[in-house]
Amino acid sequence: MKHSDILLIEDTPSLQMVYQALLKGAGLTVHAADTAAQGTKLFAQIKPRVVVLDLMLPDRDGLALMQSFLQDAPDTQVIVITANGSINRAVEAMRAGAHDFLVKPFDEVRFIAAVENAFIEGTRAPDDTDLSGAASYHGFIGRSDAMLEVYRRIESVSRSMATVFITGESGTGKEVCAQAIHDSSARAPRPFIPLNCGAIPRDLLESEVFGHLRGSFTGAITDKIGAAAAADGGTLFLDEICEMDLKLQTKLLRFLQTSTIQPVGASRPRKVNVRIICATNRDPLIEVREGRFREDLYYRLQVVPIHLPPLRERGDDVIEIARNALKRLSTEENGEFTGLTKEVETLFREIPWPGNVRQLLNVIRNIVILNTGPLVAKSMLPLEILHHHEALAQGVGPFGTSNTVQAGQDGSLDQLVGLTMAEIERIVIEETIARHGGSVTKAARVLDLSPSTIYRKRESWTRAAAE
Asked: Which of 307, 323, 350 is the endpoint of a domain?
């Protein structure tokens, strides 16, 4: 770490001495204050790049003091300190612009890592990206108002260490969002490790997250580095976090509080420096109310929420995404497509796209592989899209007026007659997922399948379209 000035505001003398010693040992020039008034005076004099601020001060609310600092010098990186019982105050501070927060008691490694990250972020050149008419952004395509707001939120949160909770239906781009946050942050040179909690059997998930030692359980023939250790210095993305077992949720909460991991079979924990981003296609508050997700973990993760809108609410973004994918895939496959017919554009705007962007991309890939250009016509669309659209035009679900497939009911099988069993299976699975809010787990219960079976089938459909 380069020699730099730092402002420390802590009213407890013993803690102030400890923090000063640690910071000086890291090569910093420390200016210490024990009141808000003294801190304000020093802030104006030295204009520090980093401030370490206890939220509980005798003469002024720490959060209000932080906001005044950021108003005067928006590029200041503020690390707030709070007691364990005041975690909500720390979350509030993060949402107000703090770079990071520390919950007492914390150790030297966590403290110095937070300060180092703050100085790294403080040296970054200010981002002057104009998002007002952005057609693409870190893997996203589209310029709808809803997506511009998402881009702004990513730009804002990437400058801090705040935990991010991404919500949205399946296929809306939650991993793209997490990757964008990582790539826009000071951690970009370090690893980005994604882990789908719903695609891993529950009895193996702890090992996947925290690792294990050889011989710690049947089948553990070698040591395994878990995702948290692999992400050290970077970002760990936990997708479908609501699928995590309650027991493992407890361990994740401890990890967030201590920044330590303990591999299965290990006798001692170890420190890691990881930023957590998580995502779910469920409503996390419903999961909390129904006892499937720990309330304390939810509030610890929900520091900065980002909601990704479904494709059906993004207006003409669907056309931009389709055109972009058509151009890219046509080049990859040596195709000759140049655009969409007006009829297809109109149809794309009308389709609700239950699988969102993922479904649209699969449709475009299917078209490019199986047809020749130059324009995408309605006749080129996959059968399930045409059947779905026709059913919507008639005001019914794809399986008839009752929205169920029942033998002996006139018309209830009309939408499926002529399709192969493989096509019918795919329609039923995707429709069931859509009707349960994008939750693969809920759809698996209804269909009497395991979630991993559904994930494998969906992956095979994607591979088949690419081949």
From this structure: 307
